């Protein structure tokens, strides 16, 4: 499996690394206090996440905490494995906690995926993600909620931005002193099922509440960030506000 790392030097010994793979991305925030890992791919990506940490010169033991944009298997799967292996806590939006603990499940099941099969790319996507663990239901039993809108006392000082809709408690994270937005699946720049490039919404059928997800995008149009670190698709140096407008204008 191939990965591409885009590194941003924030200054004062702080770095942001966006790790891109063909299927899903994660982000590493590193400073003198250690590493914050935001999302960690499918269960089958756990070792690749460790590789990416070593590629930036870190160690998995230096991970202080995991942050979760949302509890879909392609974001929580690797995080559940690594949190168990290395013993770090996992934090997310207060509303997403029950989803992360699997008290609630908003994930597409095999039937939902079958309904998407009319899309020409959906079948080849499914064949690729099955071995990564797309049908896994593993969660993080002790995931906890954190406050929104204030810098968290974690490496990289991320700020949780509620952006509900893709899941009930989906969150984005401002990083690099607000210059960057880790947008999760609220705003993406590519997806195997869409085949489009550039800022866009996740394909229909993956959102829990499409209308609420549009409201989250409207929220992004008020941000000042110029680095977009999406959950799917490549990193982009682009006005996040303009990218959100572009995604909204496509439907
Ligand atoms: Zn996703």
UniProtKB/TrEMBL annotation:
InterPro entries: Metallo-B-lactamas, NDM-1-like, RibonucZ/Hydroxyglut_hydro
Domain of life where this protein originates: Bacteria
Domain named Metallo-beta-lactamase: residues: 23-232
Protein name as annotated: MBL fold metallo-hydrolase
Organism: Gordonia jinhuaensis
């Amino acid at each position: 499996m191939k990965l591409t790392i885009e590194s941003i030097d924030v200054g004062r010994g702080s770095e942001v690394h966006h790790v891109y793979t063909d299927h899903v991305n994660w982000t590493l925030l590193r400073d003198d206090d250690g590493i914050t890992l935001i999302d960690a791919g499918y269960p089958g990506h756990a070792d690749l996440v460790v590789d990416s940490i070593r590629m930036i010169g870190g160690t998995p033991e230096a991970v202080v905490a995991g942050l979760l944009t949302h509890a879909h298997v392609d974001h929580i799967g690797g995080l559940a494995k690594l949190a168990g292996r290395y013993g770090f806590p996992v934090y997310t939006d207060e509303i997403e906690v029950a989803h992360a603990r699997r008290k609630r499940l908003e994930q597409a099941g095999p039937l939902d995926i079958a309904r998407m099969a009319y899309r020409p790319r959906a079948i080849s996507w499914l064949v690729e993600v099955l071995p990564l663990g797309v049908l896994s239901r593993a969660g993080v039993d002790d995931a906890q909620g954190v406050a929104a809108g204030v810098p968290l006392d974690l490496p990289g000082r991320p700020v949780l931005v509620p952006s509900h809709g893709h899941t009930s408690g989906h969150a984005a994270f401002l990083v690099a002193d607000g210059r960057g937005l880790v947008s999760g699946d609220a705003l993406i720049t590519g997806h195997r099922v869409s085949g489009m490039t550039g800022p866009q919404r996740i394909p229909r059928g993956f959102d829990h509440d499409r209308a609420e997800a549009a409201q989250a995008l409207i929220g992004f149009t008020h941000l000042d960030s110029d680095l977009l670190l999406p959950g799917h698709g490549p990193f982009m140096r682009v006005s996040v506000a303009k990218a959100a407008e572009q995604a909204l204008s496509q439907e």
